[in-house]
Amino acid sequence: MSLENTIIxxxxxxxIGSIFILLTGKWPNLRETVTLVTSISMFLVVGSLTHSxxxxxxxxITLLEFFPxxxxxxxxxxxxxxxxxxxxxLWIINSIYSIGYMRSHHEKNQTRFYFFFxxxxxxxxxxxxxxxxxxxxxxxxxxxxxxFPLVTHSGKPEAIKSGRIYLxxxxxxxxxxxxLAIIWTWNSAGTLDFKQGGIFDNKLTGVTIxxxxxxxxxxxxxxxxxxxxxxxxxxxxxxxxxxxxxxxVAVVKAGVFTVLKVIIYIFGVDTLAGFTEDNWLMYVxxxxxITASCIALTxxxxxxxxxxxxxxxxxxxxxxxxxxxGIGIMxxxxxxxxxxxxxxxxxxxxxxxxxxxxxxxxxxxDGLGRIMPxxxxxxLIGSLSVIGxxxxxxxxxxxxxxxxxxxxxxxxxxxxxxxSSLLNIAYLxxxxxxxxxxxxxxxxxxxxxxxxxSNFWMGLNFGxxxxxxxxxxxxxxxxxxxxxxxxxxxxxxxxxLAPVAGLN
Amino acid sequence: MFEFLTPHQAILIxxxxxxxxxxxxxxxxxxIAWLIALVASWISFAIxxxxxxxxxxVGPISYLLGNWPAPWGIEYKVDxxxxxVLLFISGISSITLIFARKSVYFEIAEDxxxxxxxxxxxxxxxxxxxxxxxxxxxxxxxLEISSLSSYVLISLGSSRNALTAAYRYLxxxxxxxxxxxxxxxxxxxxxxxxxxxDLADRMPELSDTKTVLISLGxxxxxxxxxxGLFPLHVWLPxxxxxxxxxxxxxxxxxxxxxxxxVLLRVYFTIFGYQIFNKLVIDELLLVLGLIAVISMSIVAIxxxxxxxxxxxxxxxxxxxxxxGISAVTVTGLTSTILHLFNHxxxxxxxxxxxxxxxxxxxxxxxxDMAGLGKLMPFTMAAFLMxxxxxxxxPLTVGFISKWYLxxxxxxxxxxxxxxxxxxxxxxxxxxxxxxxxxxxxRPVPDKSSKxxxxxxxxxxxxxxxxxxxxxxxxxxxxxxxxxxxxxxELMGVAL
Lengths: 504, 495
Hints:
Chain A has 504 residues and is mainly α. Chain A has helices at 3-23, 28-54, 78-104, 110-129, 133-151, 157-189, 206-219, 231-234, 240-267, 269-273, 280-298, 302-322, 326-357, 368-371, 373-387, 394-408, 411-437, 447-453, 470-488, 490-501; strands spanning 60-67, 70-75, 461-462, 465-466. Chain A is 73% helix and 4% strand. A two-stranded antiparallel ribbon of chain A has the order 1-2. Chain A has a two-stranded antiparallel sheet with strand order 3-4. The relative contact order of chain A is 0.10. In chain B, 61% of the residues are buried. Chain B has a domain at 342-495. Chain B is globular. Helices cover 77% and strands 2% of the residues of chain B. A two-stranded antiparallel ribbon of chain B has the order 1-2. Chains A and B meet through strand 1, helix 5 and helix 6 of A and helix 17, helix 18 and helix 20 of B.
């Protein structure tokens, strides 16, 4: 099959899968098999593109003319390739996890859950492979809408309230600001195609660039720059697999991915570097980076803490992009991958803790590490990767980001990166410390009952150990393995992204 | 076998529903009356499709009534704009009529149903006539035909409020029509002609006279009343809210659109866009449009009757169309013409879905919609999907018109206008989502647990419109090229 059709197939695979999920909704085992098969085939389809992209090919397919002179186009370039691979690859792991989690958590409406999950993945692939800003915007909006039912899955009042915040911020910023920015771009540049070096050809002055950049950066609500970050903690009411894949990987990464795309291909890195005095974006993202980390310190709810951590880590990527040099782009791009694996592991652990011991607050988790050793090991690996310590993937991206701030001549941001890494340690390590070394506040009395009610697939029990469902553990195993593997194979990502960052 | 009728298409499209109407009156049987109306409407629809094809390939069609040469006789004229408007009026009417049978049977006493179809056909013929005629006075005649019959249609509503709503519309509608005819009278006094093309020829040399400018003022106010231009919209919310559901859907999707069409015709064909240099109506329209968008969207948010909510939203949407006109550019007019079509699909879908809901829960109050997402999944999904189109989410028609409108304002450098337009769509998120949340997240109340999904004869027309919302939102070529060439014709730009 030609590369062009492969692009379409990679978007169609989850869509077709979603139909089968609906059809097989009455038979859970079959339905979950369909989900798994779909995710694996999507990954294989996306993966089959990798080799050609590394060779320098840029397959492009135009579906139709949307407005005169403006098409719906899909194309694969290195950054999109990376995002596509991460989203589809982690979907497999996440599906394994979902099966364990959703069943032992007795969630309702699981067919709807898997259905919208598949559609979300299709739109994430659409974002990844969008060939121009219009196509990207369309997929971006579809992604917002089809994740809404996942966020409000439980249908409880707090879920509805969060759903309102989620939709209000994401739809509001994208229609109110991003759309305006896109139409403005179209009106002044006459094209919306992604082009290395930007499309404005010095048509814009410094102030205009500043305003347009503002419209884009705050129009891309998914990147969660402060103060439009509120949707991300709000979205944590969703079932944990949703938080894990969508709000650590697909949705937020679609946001920062769009940020990178806009900076690299719409403005052009050099254009942005040319007006460093007015580059407010660095300061905003630097501020978000530190502040979100500080807020994370104050959160007792584990998922909320991880959510603020995500906000902070997203700001790393935006900061890297706004430093406007090749190394920053490389660091930002890599961090999409590194953070995805690290954070999804952490979310898996949070969900596992919730399923196995029904705990959501960190202060209740004293001594839990001895009861859930596997989960805590995975949590440790994920944490170290998010902090950025070798031998885990996160160390590379943080290395490049810091290097880029030095290269750009902003030592202040080097300091910010370092302080933030310390803050990461401060909000992640105590969780492990308390789990392993603090003694539990009350003896678990419900133990007998718990064992009686569960079977092997609903949770592992032996001795003092009461672990999460085996499928959850399997998923955590894969994702933490990924964190380690990324340390040793980071050069693959480097080689993939080098042409975009201009580093070859 | 009907080839001999082909040259007469332009008159047949109006005459067929016009003649079918009294036949409905004679047969006095509800079922047969419905069938006659349906067939007449579909024939008109078929002719409209044919006309648009012909216009885009061959060019404008002129038809002389009774072979009296223009400007003495009445001329019917079809150009891209009128063919486009004819197409969606007859299309919406045909789809609404499929839907109407069950809905009308439920809402109107059986011995009056044949009267309903009589009036429906009259209103339909009137709207088509307004669109196709090339004569300013003949336009007034059709305006009155459609208006009078719509007063009757509204008064058929099941609640007694329908009578006062219809009466209010009658008063204001008559004022509007009178203003229009006064304006046309002044033009006749100055030029001695009523033929639109002829008027257009003579206008440039007269456009400095006070009389002509005053006539423009009269016509603007008169048509402004018909189209529900803020602040002349006061009749509209009640008329929409208390009319029978099918009538609301039909009028909301077509009547105000035809009024916008008349405005375009008068401004750009008769007077020519240069007139705005002499009289700053464009700025007036801009300001009124902006106020309409913001204020009416806010009012819509606070409605508890969903029919009224959508009615206020319609007034806001008219604001968008008027803003497009006020730009006086090809892009601006394209956005207006696109939005005529797109908004017809959006509101048609929404009001029909609402009519199906009314059939089942006998209410259009927002609180009674609790749990409908489960009880009437297909109807509510249609409502949701049309609502997304109203917001202007990509892949819907609403997005297309919004794109063009914002592009038009940016071309003019009107930053604040672009921002207000976007704020308007953010407000529409609020009022659409208000309904969605209640329908999907409130638990099903006990009393309504026996509610069934709407019948298939309703779901099919609803979903035709919903599908059209997405089809024309994705395959945009047909509508955009039609609207663009219509806008170019109006602005006198070479195609």
